[in-house]
Specification:
By secondary structure, the protein is mainly β. The protein has 2 helices and 6 strands. 16% of the residues are buried.
Length: 147
């Protein structure tokens, strides 16, 4: 049987461009723009004591055809998704960001009642602390199974 689809992985590898030396002056102009999807994992600390004015940027339902809330929830709730030793704790927040050209587009998930759900924290009211970060890889998955 042939199984096809896309496999989403959350890697802690260094994003492209951070550890590379660019020698051409013209190529330096755009080296700071991210081209890949990235993620940030944070733990919930509690309510914040500060008052701020601003506008909340709400999460999206999808970043691409393959990277949607539904596909991420399947990945997060059915297997170990990270490439480092991590056990989710109540209130942990995973945010997946689109490339730099898609400024302010992101997905957000919170670990509640022993599963990941689509939700977000209000940055003006809730305080979080970064646990880890990295890049999202989406690979074609084709496995031939001879049963």
């Amino acid at each position: 049987m042939c199984e096809t689809g896309k496999e989403i992985k959350l890697c802690t590898c260094v994003p492209n461009g951070i550890d590379k030396i660019v020698h051409n002056k013209k190529s330096r102009r755009f080296k700071h723009l991210r081209k890949e999807y990235t993620w940030t994992l944070e733990k919930y600390i509690g309510g914040t004591d500060f008052t701020m004015d601003g506008m909340i940027i709400f999460p999206n339902d999808s970043l691409s055809e393959d990277l949607t809330n539904e596909s991420m929830l399947i990945v997060l709730n059915n297997r170990h998704s990270f490439d480092f030793n991590y056990e989710p704790k109540e209130g942990d927040n995973l945010q997946v960001f689109g490339p730099q050209s898609d400024f302010r587009k992101f997905l957000s998930f919170i670990y509640r009642n022993e599963k990941w759900i689509t939700d977000y924290y209000d940055g003006f009211k809730d305080k979080t602390e970064k646990i880890n970060y990295g890049t999202v890889t989406i690979e074609d998955k084709t496995e031939n199974k001879n049963d």
